[in-house]
Amino acid sequence: MASKVSLTRYLVEQQRVNGLIPAQLRLLLEVVARSCKSISQAVNKGALGGVLGTAESENVQGEIQKKLDIIANEVLIEANEWGGNLAAMASEEMEGIYVVPNRYPQGEYLLLFDPLDGSSNIDVNVSIGTIFSVLRKPEGSQVSEQDFLQAGSKQVAAGYCVYGPQTTLVLTVGNGVAMFTLDREQGSFVLTQENVQVPADTQEFAINMSNMRHWDAPIKRYVDECLAGKEGPRGKDFNMRWIASMVADVHRILTRGGIFMYPWDKREPTKPGKLRLMYEANPMGWLIEQAGGAATNGKERILAINPTQLHQRVSVILGSKNEVERVTGYHS
Ligand code: AHM
Ligand code: MG
């Protein structure tokens, strides 16, 4: 039997054999993975660890923070600040950027994360996850928020860790998508799937249907056509899933195909969408593209959007290529 490939070995191969990642980026990804292991431990303890429920605080988006949102954010900051790989970090849970303190060496990279995505699912024991994106710090002076405002196409690594029945880390460094399952006995992530591919066609869609009355015409048209099934214009039946954890919905799509939509809607017309570009849509968009799928905001490729704000929101349509192209086509 072929020996198991650990995340460490996979990353070393990406560095040495494929020349895809410098050593500093490899070390940084190891630390992110280690943080995910700690978060997974905390998530697993649940009520026994006293980690469920809300904290008495709000984040910059005005959302009530859960205790685990704060714990996961601290784990990521503490693990990543001292290694010398990063210049600064940004998170859904922090208003401004976190510059690596002077007492540590500054590295060449910028790390962005949603420490615990799908917060509404924490207390009900449904899959949640950590999403991350790595950018290179532009050369020059002191690191600033401006340095983070790079299009998703500039990412050098992106991934997520889903805390579900299994803890699975999913990663791209621009060489396809690989999945690693946490082996709790060994304490390491083991490569369990390489070269992940999203089928171009699908009969499964994911959207929060309770917002239907607020949608724009193109989204309404697409979903109506799916709902019409065999007798409708698509000539086939569709299935529906909505987990309300983007990580879990994207993980399903990477595993068996599908389309995920969190579009702009009329509830808050000035907001471009619910999800955040820099640490949700960009990393997920890149993973999906690396697996042969597509990701747009209905008008353009998510990865082509030039950000103007750290916490900017975006309409998201991603997954199986032909379906994403269809919905995007309905917008033109
Ligand atoms: P969060 O980052 O505050 O957890 O919010 C993002 C989540 C996504 O994971 C998920 O797709 C979406 O919000 C669910 O929203 P809704 O509850 O409106 O269906
Ligand atoms: Mg989130």
What's the arrangement of secondary structure elements?
Layout: H1 7-16, H2 23-45, E1 54-58, E2 64-66, H3 67-80, E3 86-91, E4 98-99, E5 109-117, E6 128-136, H4 145-148, E7 157-163, E8 167-172, E9 177-183, E10 188-193, E11 204-206, H5 217-227, E12 239-240, H6 246-256, E13 259-262, E14 275-276, H7 277-290, E15 294-296, E16 313-314, E17 316-319, H8 321-330
Parallel strand pairs: 3-5, 11-12, 11-13
Antiparallel strand pairs: 1-2, 3-4, 5-6, 6-7, 7-8, 8-9, 9-10, 13-17, 14-16, 15-17
Helix pairs in contact: 1-2, 2-3, 5-8
The chain binds 2,5-anhydro-1,6-di-O-phosphono-D-mannitol (AHM) and magnesium ion.
Describe the protein.
This protein has 332 residues and is an alpha+beta fold. The chain has 2 domains: 7-193, Fructose-1,6-Bisphosphatase, subunit A, domain 1 (Fructose-1,6-Bisphosphatase, Chain A, domain 1); 204-331, D-Maltodextrin-Binding Protein, domain 2. The protein is built from 8 helices and 17 strands. It has helices at 7-16, 23-45, 67-80, 145-148, 217-227, 246-256, 277-290, 321-330, and strands at 54-58, 64-66, 86-91, 98-99, 109-117, 128-136, 157-163, 167-172, 177-183, 188-193, 204-206, 239-240, 259-262, 275-276, 294-296, 313-314, 316-319. An 8-stranded mixed β-sheet has the order 4-3-5-6-7-8-9-10, sandwiched between helices. Strands 12-11-13-17-15 form a 5-stranded mixed β-sheet, sandwiched between helices. A two-stranded antiparallel sheet has the order 1-2. Strand 9 (177-183) and strand 10 (188-193) form a beta hairpin. The mean pLDDT is 95. The structure holds 2,5-anhydro-1,6-di-O-phosphono-D-mannitol and magnesium ion. Magnesium ion binds at residues 92, 114, 117, 280.
